[in-house]
Structure formats: structure tokens, C-alpha cells
Amino acid sequence: MANDLTKLTIAEASELLNDGEISSRELTEAVLASATHQNGDLNAYLEIFDDALASADEADARRRAGERAPLLGIPLAIKDNILIEGKRATSASKILENYIATYDATAIQKLKAAGAVFIGRTNMDEFAMGGSTENSAFGTTKNPHDTTRVPGGSSGGSAAAVAAHMALGALGSDTGGSIRQPASFCGVVGLKPTYGAISRSGLMAMASSLDQIGPFTRTVADAEILFNVLKGNDPLDSTSAPDSVWSDKKIEKKKLRIGVPEDFAFGKGVDKDVVENFKKSMEALAQEGHEIVPIKLAHITHSLAVYYILMPAEASTNLARFDGVRFGALKEGATLFDDYAQTRGAGFGREVRRRIMLGAYVLSSGYYDAYYHKATSVRALIEEDFKQAFDLSADGVDIIATPTSPTPAFKIGEKSADPLQMYLADIFTVPANLAGIPGISVPSGTAQRDGRDLPLGIQFLAPHFREDLLFVAGRSLESVAGRNA
Ligand code: GLN
């Protein structure tokens, strides 16, 4: 039994806990054993917390006192860029190696109130910049399905932890795909909520107009459980949406019109196994009664270019605070300027420095109009494309489907020398962040590589605040994915 506990979904564990069949202590002990046992191999966690069992005991006490809540006593993993008061939070960067969070992120406060147990903080690309977790200052995380391959990124540690049963669920952050792409590579569910759905307070900012916290889980139902706990207005985040967006009556739709932007989804560079799996998945969804319709998104092919201008611009601004004075380990130089140069030169890794330089460049007075300003205009066109596609009064669709990633998990080292190759891997995920719409990646089968089955995922996109439609589509895909694996 002890081993099997780690394989429970959140919903199953919650039921067993409510029925008194298991305690959170037992469950947490099993998950801790699994995490400790595998972490040497996988490096999913940067730290496994020593107070998880104490939290589990607290949750058990709350349950004994009559409390019932879906996350009470459930062991979760937290990405290392989300603050937990009193715990180290490094964003997998040397510059924050010894930083201890002074407050809880709002998402963490909510999880604590819900009684969740934190197993540890997970590895990631430094400051969430990357798609493979190879940019961590503390070593690469390995894909549990094939340890010679990357888990995806930037939330690779969270994805690997959930896939390898080192947590029942996890939090990640997604600026351009960092939840959905690793979820796809590791064979788990990953949700990037609508921009403004979950508070960003206490999430280390990468690109503020694109960042969202979201869950990793093994099932769509579990993603929904976590999302419902995490969402909601927060006065500490001025971009957080008012609660009224959730209360207008959503029509329970079971059969969806699913749009497929074919030119985009089957474009150049998309692996043929990915295309085949995608087509089969759509056929299976059609058999379930959904309607699959080809659509066009006129400006979608510009998404990557737009993203890789806006994201570094915002990141370069956000990362200015790591100067050794306000934040970050100071390295003293001969002058004040030298302090900054030494601190940032030693503290930031190559990819972070590359993006800060790119960002400073596109924002500089001579180039602002040509790059940053132009990119914001094209971003508006991409948003408009989605609006039109989702306009049901004009023959639009309920949701859109694409592969999550153009390839299955690649080899460690395969793309790390060529940043452009790495950026191309984000082709399907960045549009949702640019438009602020929600996206989910759901496992859709596998592709064989070197005799191993590597997970593939389908991404669904919905209009703002229509996560409910993603859950409908996701559950439907889950019910058929086994059949087309
Ligand atoms: N892979 C993308 C990037 O490198 C996405 C990162 C993210 O979502 N945090 O920017």
C-alpha cells in the first residue's frame, strides 16, 4: 500500500483521507520516501522540506476536527520562483542562492489555508527563462520517462515531480509555455490560467504582462481542483481579475466546436509523430461528438518573434532589482557601477544575461519604435485573431486545439548550444500568453524514441476566463487518449 499511495490522484487521496482510510501523515511519508529516493537521479527538487510531516499532522488534526476540503493534507511541490515565507526561494539562480522569502505568495497563502502540504521547492530554468530546465544554476532535471532527456521547462522540476510520483500535484509558472510544455514532455496535465485569474503576488516576475501561476496534476479533474482553490481577485495584484468574471453563468457545454489552425499546427518543423498523434486525437474527439473545424489565425506565425521581443524587454526591467543592494548577493567592485557589474556578471547565468541585453536593446530609445512598439502592435493583432476565432455569433469555435510542443522531449544538450532552436520549441505555447487566454496541455499518447515511449500532449485554448471549456475538452481527451496511444 505504502508505494501505491504516491500514485493516487488528488481526488482519490482526498476521498481516502475523508473516509479515514489513510492519514495525511501516511500519504506524506510515502511521497517523501519516493521524492528522497528518486531525487538523486532526477534532480526535480532543489530542496525537500523538513517540515512536511508537521504540516501533514496539522492537516490530520484539522480533519479530525471535522474539516473537509479537497486539498487538506495533499502533498504538493512548489516551483522555486514562488515565495513561501521563511523558505529559500532562488529561481534556480546563483544570485538568489541564499535568499529567504519574507512573505507568502497569495497562491501559497491559499494553499496553506486549504491545508496543502508542501514537499519541497522544484528546479527550473533560471528566472523561468528556458524550455528544458538546463538553465538552472543547480543542475539539470531529468525526464522520468528517459533520463537522457530534458523534462521541458522552465517548470521542469514540478512536471518531473508529478510524473515520477514525488508529489500529487505541483505549482509552476507559465510566461510562454513553462507549464504546458513540460507537462507535455513528462506526460502530465498542465494548466496556464487566464491572465489575471490567479494572483501573481509573490511570484518572482519574469515578464509581468505574460506570467501566470498554474497547476501540474495527473488528471484534468485534479487541475480543476487546484485551479478553483487558487483563482480569485487579490488586491495585492493590480492585474488580478474581479471575482465577478467567474460568477456569470457558464453554459454547461458537453459537445464543443474545436477549431484547428491547420497551417500552424502542421507547419514546418513539427515532428511527424506529433502530427499523427494530433490527427488521431482529433478523430477520437470527433467520435466523442465534438465538431472539429479548420480555422485560420492570420497573425499567429508572428507570435514567437513578438514574444521574444516583449518578454526580454519586460524581464530586463524586472531583473533590474537584482543589483546586490536591493536583492541578490553583492559582489563588491572598485566603484558603485563595478558593484553592479560584478554582482550581475557573477550572479546571472548566460541565458539570463542574454535576455537582459536583448531587452535593454529593444527598449533603447533608438530601437524602441522598431522593436518594442511594433511588437506590442502585432500582439494586439494576435489578440484580435483569437477574439474573432472565438466569436460564436460569427461562426466561431468554443476552443482551439494544437499540439503542445512540436516534438517529444529532446535530449539533454541537444538544443542548449543554440538558443534559437530552443526558442522554436515554444511555437505553440506563446500565443496564449500574448493574448492572455487560458491553455491546458493534456497527455495524448506517446511516440517511440530509442525504444522508449515518450509522452505527447495536446493543447486546448479557450476564451478569457473559460477554463471550464478546457476542462470539458481535457476530460474528453483523457477518456479517449488511451485508445490512440
Ligand atoms: N520557454 C519560454 C522561454 O524560454 C517560456 C518560459 C516561461 O514560460 N517561463 O521564455
Automatic annotation (TrEMBL):
The keyword Transferase does not apply. Transmembrane segments: none annotated. Keywords: ATP-binding, Ligase, Nucleotide-binding, Protein biosynthesis. Its EC number is 6.3.5.7. Residues 26-470 form the Amidase domain. Pfam families: Amidase. The keyword Ligase applies. It catalyses: L-glutamyl-tRNA(Gln) + L-glutamine + ATP + H2O = L-glutaminyl-tRNA(Gln) + L-glutamate + ADP + phosphate + H(+). Belongs to the amidase family. GatA subfamily. HAMAP family: GatA. Heterotrimer of A, B and C subunits. This is Glutamyl-tRNA(Gln) amidotransferase subunit A. It comes from Candidatus Yonathbacteria bacterium RIFCSPHIGHO2_01_FULL_51_10.
